[in-house]
Amino acid sequence: MCIQNTETHKGRKMAFIIDGKKISSEIKDELKEKVAEYKKNGIEITLAVIQVGNDPASTVYVGNKKKACEYIGIRSLSYELEENISERELLDLIEELNGRKDVNGILVQLPLPKHIDEDLVIKTIAPEKDVDGFHPQSVGALSIGQEGFVSCTPAGIIQLLKRSNIEIEGKECVVIGRSNIVGKPISLLMLRENGTVTICHSRTKDLKEVTKRADILIVAIGKPKFVTREYVKEGAVVIDVGIHRNAENKLCGDVDFDDVEPIVSAITPVPGGVGPMTIAMLMYNCVSSVELKK
Ligand code: NAP
Fold first, then answer.
1. Does one domain contain both 156 and 265?
2. Whether residue 203 has its Cβ less than 6 Å from ligand 1
3. Biggest alpha carbon–alpha carbon distance for the chain
4. pLDDT tens sequence across 253-266
5. Is 132 tagged catalytic?
6. 274 lines ligand 1 (CB under 6 A)
7. Range of the structural domain that residue 82 is part of
8. Is the domain of 185 the same as that of 266?
9. Which residue has the CA at smallest separation from atom 2 of ligand 1?
10. Is the same domain home to 105 and 185?
11. 40 is catalytic
12. Position 37 in a domain
């Protein structure tokens, strides 16, 4: 591990704070240059963004994705559909976008209203336009080490580690959580990077004993400040995927940052850690769709 906690605060060493804001900006700037190159060669990248209903959180996420497209130079097509649209109508739109040569990526903002089958919607997106990386073919490709889109939050975690010079190879990596969007794909990615991976979940016995073995601990449990220093080995790297708003409307993660930071070598903050990486990696997937198309 290359990270050392050398900065001092009130006489004690501080953990290296993994800066997701900075790293995501670097990635977006690199992509902006690449998109400009493509444009010079007459290639335009287009992302179709579909939102069903007007859930306020979804509206914010969709707005941020469109802003990122604009910054990078990706054209975004916006489809704002009524909450009560039928499943068939949504599937028809996706099929139409699948067939359009000028559309590189299709993103359906989740969650969808209850009367629409999310799995069916995801399966209907053509795998070569599945920039969210949720299609079973993308997930299958990841598990057998073939080329395909990787879901954005886990892909972002790998970038955070690599760009902070944190080695994964040969390290004990423990993931808390086995969801399809975070826990499982990040475990596969850590394995791909030659980490020794253990996955924990709600039925894991002696969770603390397992997590204390981790050189790199990735927490995606969905419970505010669940992980305290009793779960963490001294000098470990901690990646906090969780995002919650507390009673004072402040954001916090699945890790109790103030308790854990003094004993670890590196840690992601919330906000400003994993969060900003998700959109950056969505943009990365849109840009790499050009290569995949070739
Ligand atoms: P999820 O689907 O609720 O999965 C939580 C996982 O934690 C499950 O696998 C569950 O185990 C496990 N778990 C629950 N209680 C546990 C316990 N006491 N001990 C051990 N394991 C336990 O959550 P998710 O979608 O993966 O999201 C996790 C967090 O990341 C949430 O806070 C979410 O908001 C956040 N998130 C952030 C981003 C981002 O861009 N920053 C993206 C996605 C998610 P079982 O499988 O046994 O139930």
1. yes
2. yes
3. 63
4. 999 999 999 999 99
5. yes
6. yes
7. 42-126
8. yes
9. 179
10. no
11. no
12. no
Domain presence at residue 146: no
243 lines ligand 1 (CB under 6 A): yes
Indicate whether 159 and 262 sit together in one domain: yes
| Domain identity same for 182 and 270 | yes
| Residue 51 appears among annotated catalytic residues | no
Per-chain mean pLDDT for the chain: 95
Residue with CA at minimum distance from ligand 1 atom 6 = 177
- Do both 77 and 164 map to the same domain? no
DSSP codes of every residue in the chain: -------EETTEE-PEEP-HHHHHHHHHHHHHHHHHHHHHTT---EEEEEEES--HHHHHHHHHHHHHHHHHT-EEEEEEE-TT--HHHHHHHHHHHHH-TT--EEEEPSSPPTTS-HHHHHHHS-GGG-TT--SHHHHHHHHTT-SS---HHHHHHHHHHHHTT---TT-EEEEE---TTTHHHHHHHHHHTT-EEEEE-TT-SSHHHHHTT-SEEEE---STT-B-GGGS-TT-EEEE---EE-TTS-EE-SB-HHHHGGG-SEE--SSSSSHHHHHHHHHHHHHHHHHHH-
**pLDDT over 70 (residue 8):** no
pTM beyond cutoff 0.90: yes
Determine which residue's CA is closest to atom 5 belonging to ligand 1.
221
- Catalytic residue, chosen from 19, 129, 130, 132, is 132
Considering the domain boundaries, does residue 29 fall inside one? no
Q: Which CATH number fits the domain that encloses residue 238?
A: 3.40.50.720
Over residues 155-187, the pLDDT tens digits come to 999 999 999 999 999 999 999 999 999 999 999
- Indicate which CATH number applies to the domain containing 62: 3.40.50.10860
What is the number of the ligand 1 atom nearest to the C-alpha of 244? Answer: 32
> What total of structural domains would you count in the chain?
2
Protein residue with least CA distance to atom 19, ligand 1 = 202
